[in-house]
Amino acid sequence: MKRNSWLELGVGIFMLAGILGLVFLGLRVSGLGVGVPSNTFTLTANFANIGGLRPQAKVTMSGVRVGQVTDIQLDPKWFDAKVTMELDSKYDGKLSDDTTAAILTSGLLGEQYIGLTVGGAPDMLHDGDVIHDTQQALVLEDLIQQFVSNMAK
Amino acid sequence: MTRYLTALGRATLDTLSSIGRAGLFLVQSIICLPSREGFHLWLRQMHFVGVMSVAIVLVSGLFIGMVLALQGFTILVGFGADEALGQMVALSLVRELAPVVAALLFAGRAGSALTAEIGLMKATEQLTSMEMIGVDPLRRIVAPRLWAGFVSLPILTVIFGVVGIWGGYLVGVEWLGVYAGSYWSNMQDSVNFVDDVLNGMVKSLVFGLVVTWIAVFQGYDLIPTSEGISRATTRTVVYASLAVLGLDFVLTALMFGDLG
């Protein structure tokens, strides 16, 4: 009996370690529930080119994380990318109507994310509103093409 | 000429019937009703197969994470992208290395022992005597081992991944001086729980089933001599490793093939 209970204890610790490890992989490694505010409001923005933006990319303002991208779809009306993002609800009604959204890259090869910059308009953005002033992702090929065609002149 | 043809046909038939036996064997052992006694047998095997393999998994996971960070750093720093180290270590561990290397270690550590154990039981006619007294050896000997392997390999894989990521942290952040915040945040931005972590778990469930299946079947089906046991043990490790590597490619193609 004594030996059996040690055995059970060992197996119990083993399985607990497995569950804790999975929780670690979920929370710490894949970032589930980290930095995702529970109360959010939704904004959409249309971009001409999203580059490598993916769902779950962060949305920042002055470099501070304020939300994340939840959905990216092609808008069938204008044939550009419609990006849906969730922002912390404490900014609901605080961002001006002429806020601009730009797709930025962290570092040379890093993840792409959305950076918001507030404007000065008196009207504010609310849940479900659309950001009109957007700046598309920087595509390296386009840049090189411009550079080459400028050189040729 | 006819002799060769006969030998070829014999070998093919032997292989086919051995695959058939293995399939029947798996079905017969897996569908047995759980009982209180069966639970204790399973617990004992969990201890032998799972808990006793923790040490080797901890050590190899740590070293693999450390070497990944070291190699990755020297490559990434050339692009000025050493912040992406956490992403590289975590993705390669969670998607690929943790399931595969843990399964290979498991085949060597637990699979060969299972084959030798069951093989010796067969050689000393313990299995036959169990049948004589009306105990089904599939249910008493094989089923607990199969289930133990199936449950413990995913747990070992999780432990491997966690220790590997920690080892990468030790080398990358503590030693080579990557900023800790970007190590974790790059990792969190790029690792997706469902696509990466859960797919890795699915892989290790499949590997757990296949490796233990091969191990117990080789033990159950061997020629009951000392030479037969040694051959079956070798076959277990060889077949299980090949099966893991081959299945890994197939599963990866199914899971990540469309992610680009």
UniProtKB/TrEMBL annotation, chain A:
Keywords: Membrane, Transmembrane, Transmembrane helix. Residues 40-118 form the Mce/MlaD domain. It comes from Salinicola acroporae. This is Outer membrane lipid asymmetry maintenance protein MlaD. The gene is mlaD. Signal peptide: none annotated. InterPro entries: ABC_MlaD, Mce/MlaD, MlaD_Phospholipid_Transporter. PANTHER family: INTERMEMBRANE PHOSPHOLIPID TRANSPORT SYSTEM BINDING PROTEIN MLAD, INTERMEMBRANE PHOSPHOLIPID TRANSPORT SYSTEM BINDING PROTEIN MLAD-RELATED. The chain crosses the membrane at residues 6-27. Pfam families: MlaD.
TrEMBL record, chain B:
The chain crosses the membrane at residues 48-77, 146-169, 197-216, 237-257. It holds the Pfam family MlaE. It is found in: Cell inner membrane. It comes from the Bacteria. It is a multi-pass membrane protein. InterPro entries: ABC_MlaE_roteobac (IPR003453), MlaE_Permease (IPR053408), Permease_MalE (IPR030802). Keywords: Cell inner membrane, Cell membrane, Membrane, Transmembrane, Transmembrane helix, Transport. Part of the ABC transporter complex MlaFEDB, which is involved in a phospholipid transport pathway that maintains lipid asymmetry in the outer membrane by retrograde trafficking of phospholipids from the outer membrane to the inner membrane. Probably responsible for the translocation of the substrate across the membrane. Belongs to the MlaE permease family. The complex is composed of two ATP-binding proteins (MlaF), two transmembrane proteins (MlaE), two cytoplasmic solute-binding proteins (MlaB) and six periplasmic solute-binding proteins (MlaD). This is Intermembrane phospholipid transport system permease protein MlaE. It comes from Salinicola acroporae.
